[in-house]
Every structure is written in structure tokens, then in C-alpha cells.
Amino acid sequence: MSRTVSSYLGFDWGRLRMGVASGNSLTRSAQSVATLTEQGAARQQVIVRLVREWRPAALVVGVPCHPDGAPHKNTRLAKEFAKELRAWTGLTVHEVDERYSTTEAKGDNPKAKENQLDALSACIILEQYLRSLPQ
């Protein structure tokens, strides 16, 4: 019995920068795709282009919250971004708790530049989601 392999794009949402990663359900690993610095309509255009190029089955968005799980302003903004992604692409968007993803990215890559950390965080977020999929 063969298993269907699905690909995903993951996003580490940020107001100034947004990390993007790609991964799949077979390897359950992710790779950095880009760190977006565009804003507004320009950011939307780049994201839609990436979705067309990578052709993912679904999207994954990291949703930040306080260490105790309580929501804050960026929680709401990341959820709004997830909703926009659904509208822009028509794809399913999964939301993942992203607490400590940037801290983990920094720890795993101490020499990474700030703009690289966003894409590395997107990898961590996406891999967290991929590991949650049934085998």
C-alpha cells in the first residue's frame, strides 16, 4: 500500500519579516525557502507566487502566544494572516503553536543572521506540524 506524499509551505509570520519553508509528509522535514521583507500588497503577491511555484497541498502558519499559552496582540495578527492566506490561495491553512521557535532556531544556528532566523523558524514550525501527522 503506497502512501500519498503531500507538500506544505510553512510561515513564520512577522510584521517586518516573514520566514517561509517547504516540507513534505514523507521526510517530515523542512527547508528554508525565503525570508520576505515585502509589505502589504507586495507581500501578498510574493506569497501567491510562492504558492503557485511550490504547489503545496496545504499551508502552515506559526501562531505566537505567551509562554503560558495566553494570546497577545501578535496571536491575533498571525491568525488574521492565516485567514488571509485561506482567502488568497483557497488552500487549507493549519495553525501551529510557535512558542520558542525563534529561540530554538537561534540555539541550533548561533551564527545565523537575523533575517535567516525567520526562515529557520518557519522550518521548525513546519516540522512540528509534519511530525504531528499520522504515519
**Any idea what the CATH superfamily is called?**
YqgF/RNase H-like domain
Q: What is the CA–CA distance across the termini?
A: 13 Å
Report the count of strand segments: 5
Q: Provide the low-confidence segments as ranges.
A: none
The oligomeric state of the chains shown is single chain
Number of domains: 1
Provide the spatial order of strands within the biggest beta sheet: 3-2-1-4-5
Query: Could you say which overall geometry the principal axes of the C-alpha atoms support?
Result: globular
Question: Secondary-structure element order, as H and E?
Answer: EEEHEHEHH
Main β sheet profile = 5 strands, mixed
> In which range does the helix fraction lie?
40-55%
CATH architecture: 2-Layer Sandwich
Please report the first level of CATH classification, the CATH class.
Alpha Beta
What is the average of the pLDDT values? 89
SS-based class:
alpha/beta
The number of distinct helices, counting runs of at least 4 residues, comes to: 4
Description:
The longest helix has 19 residues, at 114-132. The chain is built from four helices and five strands, in the order E-E-E-H-E-H-E-H-H. The chain has one domain: YqgF/RNase H-like domain (Nucleotidyltransferase, domain 5, 2-Layer Sandwich), CATH 3.30.420.140. It is 44% helix and 24% strand. Helix 2 (73-89) links the parallel strand 4 (58-63) and strand 5 (92-97). The protein is an alpha/beta fold and 135 residues long.
